[in-house]
Design a protein that fits this description.
The structure holds three protein chains of three kinds. Chain B has 14 helices and 13 strands. Chain B is of the alpha/beta class. Chain B folds into two domains: 141 residues, Nitrogenase molybdenum iron protein domain (Rossmann fold, 3-Layer(aba) Sandwich); 104 residues, Nitrogenase molybdenum iron protein domain (Rossmann fold, 3-Layer(aba) Sandwich). In chain B, strands 1, 8, 9, 10, 11, 12 and 13 form a seven-stranded mixed β-sheet that branches. A four-stranded parallel β-sheet of chain B has the order 3-2-6-7, with helices on both faces. In chain B, strands 4-5 form a two-stranded antiparallel ribbon. Chain C has a single domain, classed as P-loop containing nucleotide triphosphate hydrolases (Rossmann fold), CATH 3.40.50.300. The longest helix of chain C is centred in the last third of the chain and has 16 residues. The mean pLDDT of chain C is 92. Classes of the chains: A mainly alpha, B alpha/beta, C alpha/beta.
């Protein structure tokens, strides 16, 4: 029951999301059962709802990878510089004129940018010996700031219409997603998710500490690298398509861990589902609450995710070691 | 039975062929001509600084270009290139105006800052405020006001008569449904012109339907992708810089909302130079001609 | 058998262990004893393959830990470090099962009642016992334990020592690091006091 409920809830939420919007759709149910029949439902709402689900799942798993690799509760793609790196990669790609937002090329540049930023964070944080989580967070915040300003500068200098605005990159938006964007998103999310699933047992062992994990047979640098690659694919794909959506990477794994425990195999699935659910609800609210205007999705996810996170913290639960 | 089927098929294909002639149409400054008087008139002033939108253009039409000594940044016509600009952005700089020793400064309601205008007045220079023109009906009022300001009322009437003569009897059949979109980069909402945007005046005089003016309340309204798709215009009218900001026609027709409209599917987009579309003045009759041509081409 | 051949280990620029050779036989318990900072944990880490000596070699049954992959090494030796701490709230049983079968070793170390307790909610002594249990569950020929008795009461000390003796009898090579304040070392087959 506990296992199937989330998926069912997600599907129900997705259908509900497709049924609401600023236009009246006559006979929603027959439109739903006939794919492609109603344009509003299938060309405007469907890609948006699917993107919300896939991006939410990607960010949920990305957060899990960040937390597992850093062995730290506040790690997430935004903190490690991954998200900023992905935005920079995408914008840089657009600057070369070779790339259009939402294309596979954009995803590649985004993933590369994510990889670059995150590896810089890891390299710098490990400079003085052991990779402490403290160093990771501090360095990550700095690297994130640098890449975010690079995005701002490049956008300002670029003056290219399709580079999207700085607020798109920093607050995110699902308004411009079309069905063509979905394929690339699915590819990066699946790839990142498969790697996550594969290294999950090793991440369990990593939580015992680098030394103990090594003693149990884990190749610690290699697992970190794989987590990094997974993180970059997941966040890179998502961010290049819809900008940076805050909070999901942090909140989804925590909520999942609270309900389902710390085992990374199970968490890969559940962080994905919870992440998908939050983004879906947030986006649906964002586009219906203040019609015809839209709230930036990043604000909506923060408004939903933050109280949940605070509630979690106030309930005593030993899933994270308390300091 | 079979013959009827083939006949119908051929008819259908023929229909499809003519419909697919739709294409985009760009109207630039060069496509439009200024209606102007040929003979030189006499004026009551000799050095005029123009700080009002569109007034320099009218003065050109009145053949008064020789008495124009200073302009604001929004007077962008190529013929005015040699006339010095006396504003910083849209802010008037009194010293620059005074240094040109004008005997008349023409302003309108949007000229500012007010303190700068007062400074110019207190320096003893005559300042006259002319009305703005936001639609077709306002044009003649403005021309008369400018004529009166420079002591060329007769010329003003002559210009109005000339414009009426050259007035386009232009109109388009089939009442195409046009949406005037104000684009500024890609964003999650569309801004669509409604009643009073100015574009409605142009479109209605041509016999086209401005769908925004038909269904909405304010000059500019926010619209979601879904609402635009539901509105389903046949033609989209935009300003050229705005079109550029979304990646040109290719970029525009891919956007959710636009892609689902007839206009999007047929690439039926008309883009007009930014300084041209809503500046109602002596170029407007020519603009209307061009618009009629454009509409006939993109929405036959 | 663990063969240590003229090793020199440098840490933070200092030579902690210098020209040291030793043979540690299988089927026995060897205890390395010393004061704080004398390098006993460093020696254990070198045997475990965590650090490499700058000179000399260490082999476990002719296998060089330094040259072996982590996965393979984990089949040969298991380690219970000092001050193990847990970030995530796995249960005791889940942690031990990351290494191997848990039921028997939990019984032997009286952890069965704690099987479903989260490791983040354990006392210092209980945490240490879980760490030891995990190493034992790995079921490797070599077992390395750093100060396993430090946080234990007399009863637990006895159980741990008994278990180690049983494992040694079964043929395992057991190396234990102990603080010099340990006076009662009769349970050890060999005691190493000097290795500089």
């Amino acid at each position: 029951m506990k296992k199937t409920a989330p998926i069912v809830l997600l599907i129900v939420a997705a259908v509900a999301a497709m049924s609401v919007g600023s236009s009246q759709v006559d006979d929603f149910w027959s439109a739903l059962l006939n794919p492609g029949s109603n344009e509003i439902v299938w060309q405007i709402r469907f890609p948006r709802v699917m993107a919300a689900v896939i991006v939410g799942a990607a960010l949920g798993i990305a957060g899990l990878m960040a937390q597992g690799a850093c062995n730290n509760a506040i790690a997430e793609p935004a903190i490690l510089g991954t998200a900023a790196g992905a935005s920079f990669g995408a914008v840089a790609g657009i600057a070369t004129g070779l790339v259009q937002v939402g294309s596979l090329a954009a995803l590649t540049f985004g993933t590369a940018g994510a990889l670059l930023a995150t590896s810089i964070t890891f390299k710098l944080a490990a400079l003085r010996g052991a990779l402490s989580s403290f160093n990771l967070i501090i360095v990550g915040i700095a690297v994130s700031a640098i890449f975010t300003s690079l995005v701002g500068i490049t956008s300002a200098v670029l003056n290219r219409a399709d580079a999207r605005s700085i607020s798109f990159w920093s607050l995110g938006s699902l308004a411009l997603v079309t069905n063509e964007n979905l394929l690339g998103l699915i590819i990066t999310t699946l790839a990142g998710g498969v790697i996550a699933w594969f290294i999950a047992p090793m991440l369990d062992r990593l939580s015992l500490g680098d030394h103990s994990a090594f003693h149990l047979g884990v190749n610690v640098p290699r697992v970190r690298l794989l987590a990094l690659i997974s993180l970059s694919l997941l966040a890179g794909g998502a961010v290049s398509t819809v900008g940076v959506i805050a909070f999901i990477g942090l909140a989804a794994p925590h909520i999942a861990r609270f309900i389902y425990g710390p085992s990374h195999r199970a968490l890969t699935i559940h962080s994905a589902i919870i992440g998908a659910f939050i983004v879906l609800v947030a986006d649906t609210l964002a586009r219906t609450i203040a019609q015809p205007n839209e709230l930036p999705i990043g604000l909506a996810t923060a408004l939903i995710g933050a109280p949940v996170l605070i509630a979690l913290v106030s309930v005593k639960n030993n899933v994270w070691r308390t300091q | 039975m079979k013959k009827l089927g083939i006949f119908t098929l051929v008819l259908l294909l023929a229909g499809c062929a003519s419909a697919s002639n739709s294409s985009t149409y760009t109207i630039s400054q060069d496509d439009v001509r200024l209606i102007s008087l040929e003979s030189q008139g006499t004026f009551s002033v000799s050095r005029v600084v123009v700080l009002a939108n569109g007034v320099a253009e009218i003065m050109e039409s009145l053949n008064a270009g020789s008495i124009l000594v200073g302009r604001d940044i929004s007077s962008t016509e190529k013929s005015l290139e040699s006339v010095p600009i006396v504003t910083s952005g849209h802010q008037v700089i009194p010293e620059k105006v005074l240094s040109l020793k004008p005997d008349l400064v023409i302003i309108d309601a949007s000229t500012g800052p007010r303190t700068a205008i007062n400074q110019i007045r207190s320096a003893g220079i005559k300042v006259i405020q002319t009305p703005e023109s936001w639609n077709l009906a306002d044009i003649n009022v403005k021309i008369r006001a400018v004529g009166a300001a420079i002591g060329a009322s007769k010329s003003a009437e002559a210009l109005i008569a000339m414009m009426e003569q050259n007035s386009s009897a232009a109109s388009v059949p089939n009442k195409p449904r046009v949406a005037f979109l104000y684009l500024r980069g890609t964003s999650s909402v569309y801004l669509i012109g409604g009643p009073g945007s100015g574009a409605d005046s142009l479109l209605q005089s041509l016999g086209a339907v401005d769908v925004g003016a038909q269904t909405l309340n304010r000059p500019f309204n926010a619209l979601t992708a879904e609402s635009l798709a539901t509105l389903n215009p046949d033609v989209i009218l935009v300003m050229s810089k705005g079109l550029e900001s979304v990646g040109g026609v290719q970029g525009l027709i891919k956007l959710p909302g636009v892609a689902q409209t007839s206009a999007g599917k047929n690439s039926a987009v008309i883009d007009v130079d930014d300084s041209l579309l809503l500046s109602f003045g002596p170029r407007t009759p020519s603009l209307l001609d061009q618009l009629a041509k454009a509409l006939k081409q993109v929405a036959p | 058998m663990i063969t240590i051949d003229e090793i020199t280990i440098v840490r933070d620029g200092r030579e902690i262990i210098y020209d040291y050779s030793e043979q540690i036989p299988a089927g026995s318990i060897t205890v390395i004893v010393g004061a704080n900072g004398c390098g006993k944990s460093t020696l254990l880490a070198a045997i475990a393959g965590d650090i490499a000596p700058v000179k000399g070699t260490i082999t476990i049954d002719d296998v060089h830990p330094i040259l072996t992959s982590p996965a393979q090494l984990a089949q040969i030796r298991a380690v219970a470090i000092q001050n193990q701490s847990y970030t995530l709230g796995f249960t005791v049983q889940q942690v031990i099962e990351m290494a191997g079968a848990s039921v028997q070793v939990m019984q032997a170390l009286e952890l069965t009642d704690l099987a479903h307790r989260q490791v983040t909610a354990l006392s210092g002594g209980e945490t240490a016992r879980v760490s030891i249990a995990t190493a034992i569950a790995q079921d490797t020929p070599v077992l390395l334990l750093d100060e396993p008795l430090a946080a234990q009461d007399i009863h637990s000390r006895k159980r741990i020592i008994e278990l180690l003796q049983k494992l040694a009898e079964g043929g395992k090579t057991i190396v234990v690091v102990a603080h010099s304040s340990e006076s009662e070392l009769s349970w050890a087959d060999k005691v190493i006091k000097q290795f500089h």
